[in-house]
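wait is this the right file?? whatever heres the structure
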């Protein structure tokens, strides 16, 4: 990207789109409205996205076409969540997690219940018998899905009362994101993993279109919808793609170098090492542009790019992302990390 081009408008656009996407409930398996929003966002930028059979969004960004040399960038709009698996005798809901939503992180969180008939109810995910002034075992009780329930904001006292509302097993439960951006630039929300990266990819698409960037290779964006349950990137890769780059969250925590202000380049995760050439080229691009970055090995992680390889695709793979603290909880990143991730994509695609 030429230095004369201001990045401010692209950062503002990324944060605006991320905030809007975070407001759309979309746990794995319940992503249609979020996918429709992303489809419309690409269309508004002048692209022609298509929806995959699985429900994801595939968009050709453009660039020099050469068979076997295309790059696919992937990010996912599906999030953690839950599903009603039973209704307790008191009318409260027993849940089964969708993805890795830890009940310790979800305790006392407001949520919404979507019925198959299109009704929506609110509630709170609480420990069973949640009053510490009544429950003498409050502190010692393990926070598990067997010991927690959704207390509905409805006057229900029995299982039959709740069934009469139209709520039944199989209904999705979506936790509130509680999105806020501080004056100091911190972005706090559930589900920054990975809606923040979806915003970054939209920002990249806007940059390519508005600056009339001649990409040296053909580029696709794939917004997947089943990453949190393990098969988001297992399909829909065009035949000319030779490289898959996941743009997901960068891990922040003990033993890792990345901070929320940096872009993380992952060298290895739970599946194994990423492609040596791709990781090296990403590092070289970051150094060339003087981008604040870190290289890390993630101890408990898997990406859409990993899944593409396990699904049998013969591609090279890589993983980058803005540093995110408290992953799968109430997450936090920073505008600096977002900008550094965006800049790395633009430099890598020179």
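ok assuming it is, sequence goes like this
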């Amino acid at each position: 990207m030429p230095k004369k081009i201001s990045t401010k408008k692209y950062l503002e656009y990324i944060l605006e789109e991320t905030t809007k996407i975070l407001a759309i409930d979309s746990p794995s398996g319940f992503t249609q409205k979020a996918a429709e929003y992303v489809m419309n966002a690409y269309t508004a930028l002048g692209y022609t996205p298509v929806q995959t059979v699985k429900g994801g969004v595939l968009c050709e960004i453009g660039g020099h076409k050469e068979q076997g040399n295309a790059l696919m960038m992937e990010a996912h709009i599906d999030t953690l969540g839950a599903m009603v698996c039973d209704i307790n005798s008191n009318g409260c809901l027993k849940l089964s997690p969708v993805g890795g939503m830890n009940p310790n992180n979800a305790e006392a969180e407001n949520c919404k219940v979507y019925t198959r008939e299109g009704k929506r109810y609110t509630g709170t995910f609480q420990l069973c018998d949640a009053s510490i002034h009544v429950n003498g075992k409050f502190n010692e009780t393990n926070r598990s899905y067997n010991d927690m329930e959704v207390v509905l904001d409805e006057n229900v006292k029995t299982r039959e009362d709740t069934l009469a509302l139209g709520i039944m097993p199989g209904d999705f439960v979506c936790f509130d994101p509680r999105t806020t951006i501080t004056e100091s630039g911190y972005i706090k929300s559930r589900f920054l993993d990975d809606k923040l990266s979806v915003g970054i990819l939209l920002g990249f698409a806007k940059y390519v279109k508005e600056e009339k960037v001649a990409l040296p290779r053909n580029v696709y964006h794939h917004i997947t919808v089943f990453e949190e349950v393990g098969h988001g990137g297992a399909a829909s890769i065009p035949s000319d793609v030779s490289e898959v780059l996941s743009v997901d969250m960068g891990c922040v925590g003990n033993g890792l170098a990345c901070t929320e202000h940096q872009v993380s380049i992952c060298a290895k995760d739970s599946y194994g090492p990423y492609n040596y050439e791709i990781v090296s080229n990403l590092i070289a691009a970051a150094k060339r542009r003087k981008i604040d970055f870190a290289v890390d090995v993630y101890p408990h992680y898997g990406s859409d790019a990993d899944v593409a390889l396990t699904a049998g695709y013969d591609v090279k793979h890589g993983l980058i992302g803005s540093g995110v603290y408290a992953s799968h909880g109430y997450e936090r990143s920073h505008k600096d990390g977002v900008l550094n991730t965006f800049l790395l994509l633009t430099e890598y695609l020179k």
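Residues 16 and 199 are 8 Å apart (CA to CA). so i think its the right one actually
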